[in-house]
Amino acid sequence: MPENFFQWSGLIVGAVSAYFGALNAVKERLATLDARMDAVHEDAAEAKVAAQRAHDRIDRMNAK
């Protein structure tokens, strides 16, 4: 075996481990952002419905 085989193998194992660790962190971050965007869209839809109800009440009051 080469004299620094274990050094190189340790370096390669460390690099692969770091790569997959970073990849996992990016996937978790994207999942978090996706969940936040879903929540924002749900809040916006609820706000739109509430605003439409308020406008409908105002229109009914004005029609009387």
Shape: rod-shaped
Number of helices: 1
Unreliable runs: none
Instruction: Give the SSE order as H and E letters.
Output: H
Largest sheet: none
Q: Which class best fits the helix and strand makeup?
A: mainly alpha
> What is the typical, i.e. mean, pLDDT?
92
Helicity range of the residues? over 70%
End-to-end Cα distance: 94 Å
Q: From the alpha-carbon coordinates, what is the Rg to the nearest angstrom? A: 28 Å
Number of strands: 0
**Percentage of β-strand residues:** under 5%
Describe the structure.
The protein is an all-alpha fold and 64 residues long. The protein has one helix spanning 5-63. The mean pLDDT is 92.
Fold topology:
Elements: H1 5-63
Which structural traits does this protein have?
64 residues, mainly alpha, 1 helix, 92% helix
Concise account of the structure shown:
The chain is mainly α. Helices cover 92% and strands 0% of the residues.
